[in-house]
Amino acid sequence: MGAQEQINELKNEFRELLLSTRREGIADLLAWLEETDFYSAPASTSKHGAYEGGLLNHSMNVYKLLANFNKNIKCDREDSLVIASLLHDVCKTNMYVKGIKNVKTPGKREWTEKEVYMIEDELPIGHGEKSVYLLMKHIDLTEEEAIAIRWHMSGYDDAARSYIGGITQSKAFEKYPLAPALAIADMYATYFAD
Ligand SMILES: [Fe+2]
Ligand SMILES: [Fe+2]
User: Fold this and answer.
1) Which residues lie below 8 Å from residue 2, measured CB to CB, with a gap of 6+?
2) How many Å apart are CA 89 and CA 86, to the nearest integer?
3) Among the listed residues 187, 155, 182, 181, the one whose alpha carbon sits nearest the alpha carbon of residue 169
4) Residue 22, by phi and psi: left (phi above 0), alpha (psi -120 to 50) or beta?
5) Which one of 14, 33, 106, 130 counts the least CB within 10 Å of its CB?
6) How many whole angstroms from 112 Cα to the centroid of ligand 2?
7) Ligand 2 centre from 153 Cα, in Å?
8) CA 128–ligand 1 middle distance (angstroms)
């Protein structure tokens, strides 16, 4: 299967899962995603999923892991699992641009030009915060979903490293098992399911 076919297949799966939640406004949200680069964007500039369709692939990986974790965490709302996992990184849409960077040729003195992804964040409101903000323009999120998406970066979120932020995040993790479960699934997908 070619790369584009693979992206199309994942995209169909992604759309069907979201439509299955029957959340009010979900069709509107999907129509908005069509206008963005969500389905072709990478998941990061150079670490995980730094290729076309990487963000879609990462989102599906997080969903599959989270659905599997749910045997233990018992989040009884299937729609929340789907929405939190598939849409946690919506903040990365329209954020990566291709550019040229000079990189050193290993073992040599010369530099060569390489096409790389770079970040141009037009809405610098924060990572999880931005996903919540963008999603709520189209659908309502439950408190559990909003908290899980906002804190999905776990200890990698700068806010979690401050005293008050750390307390807030740990309260969030205690209150809703979906929140730490999403953070764990996200990290697992980042390091093991690229
Ligand atoms: Fe993220
Ligand atoms: Fe992620």
Assistant:
1) none
2) 8
3) 155
4) left
5) 106
6) 31
7) 8
8) 7
The whole-angstrom separation of Cα 194 and Cα 178 is 22
Q: Each residue of 114-164: pLDDT tens digit?
A: 888 999 999 999 999 999 999 999 999 999 999 999 999 988 888 888 889
**Would you say 120 and 154 are in contact if contact means Cβ atoms under 8 Å apart?**
no
Give the torsion sign (CA, 140, 144, 149, 150).
Answer: positive
CA of 23 to the centre of ligand 1 (A): 22
d(CA 180, CA 92): 21
- Render pLDDT for 87-111 as a digit per residue (tens, 0 to 9): 999 999 999 988 898 888 888 888 8
Residue keyed to tokens 């999403």: 182
Query: Residue 104 pairs with which residues in a beta bridge?
Result: 111
**Angle at CA of residue 25, ends 31 and 58, nearest 5°:** 60
- Identify whether the C-beta of residue 153 lies closer than 8 Å to the C-beta of residue 131: no
CA distances (Å), 39 to each of 110, 148, 159, in order?
36, 22, 29
